[in-house]
Amino acid sequence: MSDRFSSIATLLDQAARTAVAVPQVSTQTPFSVEDAYGIQARSIALRCQRGERRVGIKLGFTSRAKMAQMGVDSLIWGWLTDTMMQEDGGEVALNQYIHARAEPEVCFLTRRDIDRPINLLEASSYVEAVAPAIEIIDSRYQSFKFTLEDVIADNCSSAGLVVGPWSSRVDALANLGVILRIDGRVRQCGSTAAILGHPLRSLVQASHALSAASASLPAGSLVMAGAATAAEALSSGSHVSATVGKLGTASFLAS
Ligand code: OOG
Ligand code: MG
């Protein structure tokens, strides 16, 4: 990787570690989507060198609500690491983030290695369990503004995740109501059908993205399917919950 891209990876990694935003990069130094994934890989390698462990991947922009909110209309993916995981029902300190937002998601726990492109018919056989989840996103760019290339380089704003109770009801995922509440008030609502028509399609897309990147995901990994609604900004003292139909609720207290 060129020095130029490697220094962008270091810049973004540092912004995440110090919780200090940086200006958008692609406006100064244009780069391609392929380069952006290279920068992302480099920044994840920096995390792993510090002892972080990959626990899965996340999909982004799998719903129209998210595409419209951020003005980006291509599916993206990034890595999740162990230090991003937050306890369900616990406290999440906001000072580790720059300008964190929360969004309601569905999380898959994989049953088999994902090491080739899979199709929708076989997707459920790759799932051990599903859970309602909240993704905490935190763009490392000032004002949460980015291009497609910028956000991919920034590991797709991955910052935290709260995974609710696991269930084996993979067959019940179609068209479940999704509600994001802050302090008990409904702030966003939608349906699991907003996620590419069915959240299992995110798993299919994940397998294709991994294979295009010559990467694979071991059994026992997490796959976040992408938000069904727009994200909401967080402030300390807020109690945040996401309910996904009969799958139940994931929650945390922002402190
Ligand atoms: C990019 C991440 C998008 C989703 O679920 O669509 C995403 C962002 O909005 O900052 O995580
Ligand atoms: Mg998300």
Distance between the termini: 39 Å
Q: What gross morphology would you assign? A: globular
Q: What's the rounded overall pLDDT mean?
A: 97
H/E series: HHEHEEEEHEHEEEHEEEE
- Runs in which pLDDT lies below 50 for 5 or more consecutive residues are none
Number of helices: 6
Bound molecules: 2-oxoadipic acid, magnesium ion
Structural class: alpha+beta
The CATH architecture is Alpha-Beta Complex
Approximate strand percentage: 25-35%
Biggest sheet statistics: 8 strands, mixed
The helix fraction, in percent, is: 10-25%
CATH superfamily: Fumarylacetoacetase-like, C-terminal domain
The top-level CATH class is Alpha Beta
Number of domains: 1
Provide the CATH topology: Fumarylacetoacetate hydrolase, domain 2
List the helices and strands and how they pair.
Elements: H1 3-18, H2 33-49, E1 54-60, H3 64-70, E2 76-81, E3 85-86, E4 91-92, E5 101-110, H4 120-123, E6 127-137, H5 148-153, E7 158-163, E8 177-182, E9 185-191, H6 200-212, E10 222-224, E11 232-233, E12 239-244, E13 248-254
Parallel strand pairs: 1-10, 3-7, 4-13
Antiparallel strand pairs: 1-2, 5-6, 5-10, 5-11, 6-7, 8-9, 8-12, 12-13
Helix pairs in contact: 1-2
The structure holds 2-oxoadipic acid (OOG) and magnesium ion.
